[in-house]
Design brief:
This protein has 217 residues and is an alpha/beta fold. It is built from six helices and nine strands. Strands 5-4-3-6-7-8-9 form a seven-stranded mixed sheet. Strands 1-2 form a two-stranded antiparallel sheet. Helix 5 links the parallel strand 4 and strand 5. The relative contact order is 0.12.
């Protein structure tokens, strides 16, 4: 069993992720190092390395390996950077970020998933896990170098743009239904941000991220 999973892990990187134009060596190393099967239920372990979203309970899913690789490549996390992740899930993407960054703070809305992530990430000492609703923003002690959301915003909250260091990047998926795109936002000065659409995709929506209705009088 372990041998077949190890081969599947290798094939995930070399036959799925790399051919999808994910060529950043640090990203490929992270994907090769962190066993994805450790972050899903045992009955899904043989599917862990398929290029598919996998259920993790509570109506939530783990993103596909190719999408995770493409997001990490676009984000270009450096070894001296502080990262905020919105949506821990069971912690797989958190572990990938921690492999690349100096420190990762990750926020999960669902306490049961946060508890699973805590167990899965035990032994990785550059991660701080938080439980709470980060759909509209998250209070931080200082600005971040990198912010990434693993579910889709209808509209990216301005608070996250304000939470970036100058030179920092925010990667978020914006849109609804089948019309979603990955947005890379770089803060280039105190009052100026540069936004680039990286590629189109479809992922589950961020819980509680729908904009609040405006009252009309």
């Amino acid at each position: 069993m372990a041998q077949s999973i190890s081969k599947s892990h290798f094939n995930m990187v070399e036959q799925q992720v790399r051919p999808s134009n994910v060529l950043d060596q640090r990203v490929l190393e992270a994907l090769s190092t962190i066993p994805r099967a450790d972050f899903v239920n045992e009955d899904l372990s043989l599917l862990a390395y398929a290029d598919a979203e996998l259920p993790i309970g509570y109506n939530q899913t783990m993103l596909s390996p190719v999408l995770e690789g493409r997001l990490l490549q676009a984000l270009n996390v450096q070894a001296d950077e502080q990262v905020l992740e919105i949506g821990t899930g069971t912690g797989y993407f958190t572990a990938l970020l921690a492999h690349l960054a100096q420190h990762v703070s990750s926020v999960e809305l669902i306490p049961e998933l946060a508890e699973q992530a805590k167990k899965n990430l035990a032994g990785i000492d550059n991660i701080e896990l938080c439980v709470g609703d980060a759909s509209q923003g998250w209070e931080l002690p200082s600005r971040m170098d990198v912010i990434i959301a693993t579910a889709a915003f209808t509209t990216i909250p301005d608070e996250y743009k304000q939470s970036l260091q100058v030179g920092g990047r925010l990667l978020a998926i914006e849109g609804a239904g089948s019309a979603m795109s990955v947005q890379l936002i770089e803060r280039i000065s105190e009052r100026e941000w540069l936004t680039n659409t990286v590629f189109e995709t479809v992922v589950p929506p961020m819980i509680n991220a729908e904009p609040k209705p405006e009252f009309e009088f």
